[in-house]
Amino acid sequence: KKAGSVMGERARRLLYDLVAYCLIGNPIMTNTRAFQNTTDGNLRTSKALTRDNLITGITAFETQQENGANVDMKATHLIVAKAARFAAPELIAPSRLITGSDTVRGDFNSVAGSVENVLHDARIDNGFDDPTDVSDVPAVIAGVPTSWWLADANQKAMELCYVQGHGRAPRLRSGTLSNGQYGFWYDCSMTAGIAPVKRKSIQRNNA
């Protein structure tokens, strides 16, 4: 590929890396606590992705309160690693959960439909370059393939921001070298940032 095309693709990938940075990298906020933490109740530990843990996670997520009032969260998305993209939909599928006879519960999956969408991303499996590291060789944020998240798309946990007047697409420039040099030069900029805005809208679960 041409150098300019590669630079543009990497700039566009920055947007997704910024979202992953907040979810996986879990940055420290101005109150000195991580975006997802046990004190604020949006981080649970020892919670592998199982039916029972999904039930307790959804219950905790959708019964949150603020100053004594319900905040009416709804788990619209279940976010998992690529490795869990087949197991996760099975937990919320309307198909039979068990075979044979179960006199207590039968074969009805009561979790079916409790979460509308399953999202999966390889950054959760493999990690990715830290988008906030401006060094030539940026640090790598390690993957967390056994972690999973619940999110409410109607109450945003994060806001993606752009610099006014710069547009939302990568800006690519190019030219020819001068002063007796032969060749071409390229540079690319992507003026975007991300801001975590609401902890209660996201719940992280670590295995």
Structure description:
- The protein has 207 residues and is an alpha+beta fold.
- The chain has helices at residues 3-25, 51-62, 87-91, 122-126; strands spanning 43-44, 65-66, 69-70, 77-81, 117-121, 128-129, 140-141, 148-151, 158-162, 171-176, 184-189, 192-196, 202-205.
- Strand 2 (65-66) and strand 3 (69-70) form a beta hairpin.
- It is elongated and about 80 Å long.
- The two termini are 40 Å apart.
Count the strands?
A: 13
C-alpha-based Rg, rounded:
21 Å
Question: How large a portion of the residues is in β-strands, by DSSP E?
Answer: 15-25%
**H/E series:** HEHEEEHEHEEEEEEEE
Which oligomeric form is depicted? single chain
Please tag this protein with its features.
single chain, 207 residues, alpha+beta, five-stranded mixed β-sheet, two-stranded antiparallel sheet, 13 strands, 22% helix
Secondary structure layout:
Elements lengths: L2 H23 L17 E2 L6 H12 L2 E2 L2 E2 L6 E5 L5 H5 L25 E5 H5 L1 E2 L10 E2 L6 E4 L6 E5 L8 E6 L7 E6 L2 E5 L5 E4 L2
Parallel strand pairs: 1-13, 4-5
Antiparallel strand pairs: 2-3, 4-8, 6-7, 8-13, 9-12, 10-11
